[in-house]
């Protein structure tokens, strides 16, 4: 039976419900029987009192009626009234006899005795006197119009009644005719008051019994509830505990946390079956979630690993997620780094577009992409004043045949653009720089070959041919140096070198190359560097060559060596030439880059010298930078690590 009940919660609730109803019915029935018994007894007593009150009232009314009939007989002398008086006497005798037979309490017995005594006294004394009085009026012996007690005494003289008689009739007073009525009324009132008091006591007793019955029923109900609470509390706690575990596990499962499910079901009812099904569902969902998380992490890591920047925009929620390359490309901080998922992008696409140089074209392309009207395969934009070049395309993302979002892909093509630019500039520079000296060499060679020239002019032409040949050699050497730098094959034979010696040799080469320039050299300390003597010489030679070349009007060129920083040597070369625009300084050391102004175009050059200088400086662990003012000159500063010769010698 218990096993059958435990199989379903409905059976358990019905069992408890029926048990509760049964106990309530039993307790209610017991209280009802008790209350009914008490009410029946009290009702019976009240009915008895009501019956006695009714009989007493009837007796009193009959007595009064007899008195009135007797008075009428005395006044009118009607024999019919006398007959009615006699009938009333018979009825009073019967009623008084009932009280005498049914008297139980002392008060009832006293009432019955008083009523009998008064009736006997009235019947034996008053009635005969009144009858003789009427006979006297008829015979003429009594002539008074109204009854007077002295006359009644003369008509029917009697002895004084016994002293122990309770009710007395005094014939000397005319009012004594109504004394019997007053006496009967007093007896009746006293008896009726006793009945009222008894009735009030019974009603109070009935109210008390009713209250006790209510209290007893309430106590029995509370007792039943307490028993059910004691019996059902463990079951309810167990049931609610299982449901609470299911709720908590559902929340954990919804919050992507692992649910804590018992190994086996704790009961065989619906909750136990639900627990078993939930455990199976949770296990299946956990497995599927792990697979989904693995796939999501794999997708995220793949997108993070590619170098192209990706943004996915959800159309319904406007949420934007991106891979790591996007934040690097647009210099955006990553709010929460998580390699297993894409990063949330908080800034708007309009804010990202502010970094694009071609803003109108960029926003127009974005609008076409989101509207689905984009027909271009890709477009190319520049960023931050052509600091970077970006190739961009858009893809529509569909899920189950419905478009859910748009994916924007940004590819950094700065290197490719730079390579194309370098190729173009290389072809342009080489074709121009090679054509100029070759034209001179061919022209002077044809003059020497086909014309007869003086020895002085021939010598002059040969010198110019030699100078142009050296110019070609310098150009080819620079191209070869750039090629080695690009391929990573540039090598340095580093040794401890005295810096002042390298600088003096470079200054000596350029000291006599121009009559309009004066080179000054200031080196306060005898410092050493660890580097390649040839490459360092090439570095300072290029810088001095540029100082001379870009100050065509001449002037002083100052070379200073400063050791103000503990571990660094700063070598500055200052000229007073045409200067460099501030906008050109960031790209000054790029390959094939030449300042685009009229003065520099007249001077010419390949744009490789400063790029080679930068490579040599960085190859020695140093750096190079430039400051300049248009029309006032430029300062190129090379910073190299200082070498501690004493430590080098000891090692």
From TrEMBL:
EC code: 2.7.13.3
Domain of life: Bacteria
Membrane-topology annotation of the record: Multi-pass membrane protein
Reactions accelerated catalytically: ATP + protein L-histidine = ADP + protein N-phospho-L-histidine
Subcellular location: Cell membrane
The entry's keywords: ATP-binding, Cell membrane, Kinase, Membrane, Nucleotide-binding, Phosphoprotein, Transferase, Transmembrane, Transmembrane helix, Two-component regulatory system
Enzyme class: transferase
Domain HAMP: 237-290
GO terms for MF: ATP binding
Main location: membrane
Pfam families: HATPase_c, HisKA
Transmembrane segments: 12-34, 212-232
Domain Histidine kinase: 429-644
Name of the protein: histidine kinase
